[in-house]
Amino acid sequence: MAESVRNIGVEELKVLQLDILQTVADFCTERGIPYSLACGTLLGAVRHKGYIPWDDDIDIYVLREDYDRLLREFPPERGPVRIASLERTPRWDKAYAKAYDARTVMVEHTRCRQRIGVCIDIFPLDPVPDSPEAWHRYDRRRRFWQTLLQMKLMRPDARRSKGRNLALRVVQVLLLPVPAHRLARYVDRLSRRFSGWRTDYVFECAMGLIMKDRFPRSVCTHFSDYPFEDRVFRGFSDYDTYLTSAYGDYRTLPPEEKRVSHHIFKAWWL
């Protein structure tokens, strides 16, 4: 890396992420595309009125039909912001989209083939079965393939045990013949398995490994404004139903030793 390159620290990264989110949120508002803060971002908005203090990323949800519309209609460039996805980016290796700042580069601790900038995650929400039995069968299958994709992209990490790093290497050797973007496309097809079904439940099928359970589609029909740092963004009005399905007792802070970022990255200005 050239000496003239200026690194981006965590606080500057957060400002850039907020600007990216503002750009995407403004576009969604202009086009009538409903979106919601999601995952730890909505939890942070509810519990901390901003980032969870030890977190450093931003996630949003868009229902699948609106997600597809967002990817079709978002321009190739909107200021410095671009969107990368299976539909827009050759050999993309994730089943969901990222909006990023093209003036920057960010390298995370994964084997990602595409190098994009400081970014936020855009997760589609898909219909899932109403029957608990059918839901659990589907979710086991989906999680299996999503886990394989994640393991394909992961790097050995000293924070894991030697046994887990060894298991990771074994799985990656077995997956060598399968390109990551092909796995991502399969996860995308699996995520869309129930597209068009008017089920009562939805889930973030394209990524959800940490999220505990599906939640009612009705949660996605009403939105409120939430202060987030020095901005205001949209989120589910019934945040309690969503956050409980996602995290269980979300109001109780985790043990202090678990209050750490799960991201490892380097970012810099081009």
Would you kindly provide a written description of the structure presented here, covering whatever features stand out?
With 270 residues, this protein is of the alpha+beta class. 36% of the residues lie in helices and 20% in strands. The protein has one domain (10-269). It has helices at residues 10-31, 39-48, 64-73, 132-153, 162-174, 180-191, 239-247; strands spanning 36-37, 59-63, 81-84, 97-101, 104-108, 119-128, 201-203, 215-216, 223-228, 231-236, 265-269. The strands form three sheets. Strands 1, 2, 3, 4, 6, 7 and 8 form a seven-stranded mixed beta sheet that branches. Strands 5-11 form a two-stranded antiparallel sheet. Helix 4 packs antiparallel against helix 6. The chain is globular and about 45 Å long. The N and C termini lie close together (11 Å). The mean pLDDT is 94.
Features:
two-stranded antiparallel sheet, globular, 270 residues, alpha+beta, 7-stranded mixed β-sheet, 36% helix, 11 strands
Tell me briefly what this model is.
With 270 residues, the chain is α+β, with helices and mostly antiparallel strands. It contains 7 helices and 11 strands. The chain has one domain.
